[in-house]
Design a protein that fits this description.
Blueprint lengths: L1 E8 L7 H17 L3 E9 L8 H11 L5 E4 L2 H4 L2 H13 L3 E4 L4 E2 L4 H34 L4 H4 L15 H9 L4 H10 L6 H15 L1
Parallel strand pairs: 1-2, 1-3, 3-4
Antiparallel strand pairs: 4-5
Helix pairs in contact: 4-5, 5-8, 8-9
């Protein structure tokens, strides 16, 4: 399995550099013990309470892209502290990346409290996704009821590539004429494969109106 070694200290003092080196050495030994293939080693000098840590963001990018199976850390506090730790553990779990620590000489065993919080977070995220899908369906139903026919209006509906990401101003205007809000228009177009926000819909519509005037 492919692994990333993540070493962190909380301050940027020069004296902490030796701690980072020691963590890396011990984590390489842990990797050898479990026959992991280390593809990246990341050192970071940041507080564990911060969520925006460049090193940890690199770890999460590797996890999202499927490049790693395991993250190796000294102990669970190296991942983060407080809410930051929960958020990162949840993200790693979502990408099916395991966490091994020196302190446990194996896979991280979460406390009952942390496990419960992670289950709650996963449940909330699942319901948020369902609510988002419901909004897309509602927007589409309302648009179709008012006469919108995406199969006729979107010539690139089944095509891939960058064209799908272009803003379809004609459809924005058409949906606006059907009395949909900017948020409903953005949700509807997202459901059709267009990556567009409510703010972009509003801005492009205003630009169109100004150009017409």
């Amino acid at each position: 399995m492919k692994a990333v070694i993540y070493c962190r200290v909380s301050t940027e003092k020069e004296t902490q550099a030796s701690s980072l080196e020691r963590q890396e050495m011990e984590l390489r030994q842990l990797a050898d013990q479990f026959h992991f293939d280390v593809i990246e080693v990341i050192h970071e000098m940041k507080s564990g309470f911060e969520i925006e840590r460049e090193g940890m963001l690199q770890v999460l990018d590797l996890a999202k892209e499927g490049h790693v199976d395991v993250i190796l850390v000294q102990d669970e506090t190296r991942i983060g502290r407080g809410s930051a730790k929960i958020a990162i553990l949840h993200t790693l779990r979502k990408y099916s990346v395991k966490c091994y620590t020196i302190s446990e000489q194996g896979e991280l065993q979460l406390t009952e409290a942390d496990s419960m919080v992670l289950e709650i977070v996963s449940l909330v995220e699942d319901y948020q996704r369902k609510l988002h899908n419901a909004k897309i369906k509602r927007g589409m139903r309302r648009a179709v009821t008012n006469g919108y026919r995406p199969e006729r209006n979107l010539s690139n509906l089944t095509e891939g590539g960058r064209e799908r990401k272009e803003v379809p101003i004609e459809e924005i205007v058409r949906l606006r004429q059907l009395k949909l809000t900017f948020k409903e228009i953005a949700t509807t177009l997202n459901g059709l494969g267009f990556d567009i926000s409510k703010a972009t819909v509003h801005r492009r519509y205003q630009e169109y109106i100004e150009a017409q005037n």
